[in-house]
Amino acid sequence: MKRLKIVLIAFVSTFLFSSCGYNKMVEMDEQVTASWAQVENVYQRRADLIPNLVNTVKGYAAHEQETLTGVIEARSKATSVNIDPTNMNPQMLQQFNQAQEGLSSALSRLMVVVEKYPDLKANQNFMDLQAQLEGTENRIAVERRKFNQTTQTYNAYIRKFPRVIYAGWFGFEKKTYFEAQQGSEKAPEVQF
């Protein structure tokens, strides 16, 4: 009789835990983490392009030191904010987003300065860097979208019955989405 109980408990446990989706939750959690790493990867690519861009502009617009310093400082702030995807929360994501928005704003000011220097705009090195930066901005948008899609799939999976019960037991919690900053729906004003 005791042996039958053990076999029955083992059978029921195997059935419950194999159908609870634990392995799938682990897989999906890892996909969210990998997706976030890719978001950080493209932001790092942008940060890596900036010193070359600043150095190229420096040669043409040496007296625009304030703008160049602003870009360098914004890059430093943006690269200092790191998020651990295992404990991502809205506050950390907002801090990360604010640092990245600061860098985007500084780059916009730099591009306004560039408009004053026709020789710089015609410089092949600058044009290549500008094209790479534009491509990187597109990559950032794509990777943020992929991150949000992966996060949505994961969140929906762990919130469906009966996984909603098991997810909590195993520590799988809802992940935070990457959201645009307030006011980003308005186009920035560019003044020459």
UniProtKB/TrEMBL annotation:
Gene3D superfamilies: LemA-like domain (1.20.1440.20). GO terms for cellular component: membrane. Keywords: Membrane, Transmembrane, Transmembrane helix. It is found in: Membrane. Pfam families: LemA. The keyword Membrane applies. PROSITE patterns: PROKAR_LIPOPROTEIN. It is a single-pass membrane protein. It comes from the Bacteria. Belongs to the LemA family. This is LemA family protein.
